[in-house]
Design a protein that fits this description.
The complex is a heterodimer of chains A (about 375) and B (about 160).
Chain A: H1 16-27, H2 39-52, E1 59-65, E2 73-81, E3 84-93, H3 104-114, E4 123-127, E5 137-141, H4 165-183, H5 204-220, H6 226-237, E6 245-248, E7 257-260, E8 265-269, E9 276-279, H7 281-288, E10 294-296, E11 299-302, E12 306-307, H8 311-319, H9 325-353, H10 359-365, H11 368-382
Antiparallel strand pairs in A: 1-2, 2-3, 3-5, 4-5, 6-9, 7-8, 10-11, 11-12
Helix pairs in contact in A: 1-5, 5-9, 6-9, 6-11, 7-9, 9-10, 9-11
Chain B: H1 5-23, H2 29-48, H3 52-73, H4 78-88, H5 96-113, H6 116-140
Helix pairs in contact in B: 1-2, 3-4, 3-5, 3-6, 4-5
The chains are: A alpha+beta (about 375), B mainly alpha (about 160).
Chain lengths: ~375, ~160
Amino acid sequence: MNESNQPLADGRDLEPEIAHTLNRIHAARASGPYALCKEDELRSRLEPFLLREGVRNPRVEDLSRLAGGASKEQFVFTLMADGQSPRSCVLRLEPVEGVAITSRRRELEAIRAVSDVVPVPEVLWIDPDGDALGRPALITGFVEGVTKPSDTSSNITGFGTVLGASLRGQLVGPFFDHLNAIHAIDIRSPDLKSFQIPHADPQQAARWQVNWWTTVWHNDALRGIPVLGLAERWMRDNLPETSELVLIHGDYRTGNYLFDEETGTITAILDWEFTHVGDYHEDLAWISLRPWSNTENGTLLASGLFPYDELATRYTAVSGREVNLKTLHFYQVLCLYKCTVICLGSGLRAAHEAHNHQDALMSWLTPAGYVFMNELIDVIEQGAPL
Amino acid sequence: MNPSIELRLRTMIRAMNEIIIPAVDGGDSLAQEQARLLLGHLHVLLQHEGREQAMCDIERSDLQRLASALVEASSGGSATAAATARVQNLPDDVDTDGLSHAIEALIIDSGSDGSEAFKRACDTLVIAHGRAATRRSRTWFKSMGFDHDPDALGDIDSLFRR
């Protein structure tokens, strides 16, 4: 854990590792269109990389591209190696820009830090700067499971996923248990050396998040949006104090875990790229957002799993932590701002610059930002989100 | 006689449905997904055909009204005054991007030294503008299927009725 948490030279108080990543993206803005990674070329780079990583006589077989993955190029392959059984692997490769560009090193550290307490894909290898594979990349083991019932469809993974009463009953307990296990991780663990702790003052955790996402917006926005200006001002005027810092997943919701449809078991928690140290209310706020909730018989099911009204009591029951509704409200504003920025800022910018392998998807996803922005207005104006 | 954009979009949709998508390698899930995505884009473009400029004009005139109202209500210290002046001094032919960025900057900068009266007025004006703008865009893109309450929105034609 890096304890440095001094404000940046330009005065923004931002986690240094996040600032480094944002500067890296900004510096790449002038590069030309992103070239799709060719499978033959990838294979020719993968085998020497794996050899250097200590794999004996590696052979990459059945390399194929996966659909989905709005922020990464995704591939699956079978790794053959001397003295080892064939192994199914997943490779995620970072384009120049996308809905979110983050740090593969932090993703690796986060997954390894929690691997003893929650189900996650095994992290096998990393090419943090893309020196070997052409772009920053992370290779994990393949995990069986689905993100939604196989007989349903959704526009964005997790948007309005209907799980059904039986699956909900099986998944909701482990969903909170795993969240609590993540929040119980020692944030000063040497495994988390790319993460910094916002402990300069009680508001720094919230301020780092506001500065992260407002910086993304101001770097990426093609057009100004008055409501986002209002939200930025509101957040700066209402920064909450954080009583306890924990490891935040940052994208914890239905759609970002795999489960076994037969047993209702969560087989892996996914998408660790937003993980950081912060206030536990942030993950709770993310879970509660309406776009990945749904309504059944007039009851709003947060993340499609449980009645929204039970959020605080369920979390307190597993963690012992109290939920402060005013702090939760602040983080709901922050989370909706973040989602709006991802869609109307980063995704649209990536399409505009032709900096992603799925520009057509980036421009398709952009209008989802108006759904988040509509919720953002509600939450700011009404003082309560739902 | 030139073939209309509507006709050309319809012919593209038919080609995608009847020739291109059936020919995409069934084992290439990304190519399949992208082909279906293009088909979706074409259907939405067909709904928007001939009306995008009108949408842009509405957006611009709403922003101009918001800018005027904010300038009129503005009061506060030097940061707010400077941001207000930047909005006021925009050339008449400033593009919508420049106009919108200047408005957003004024709203943010008013947080440092805007008067409480201006901030309250600003909140009311921006939320009213945001509700109208968001509803308009949700309606414009309703057929993409993101909205959790699409029935509460009108159709695209409703955006242009006065």
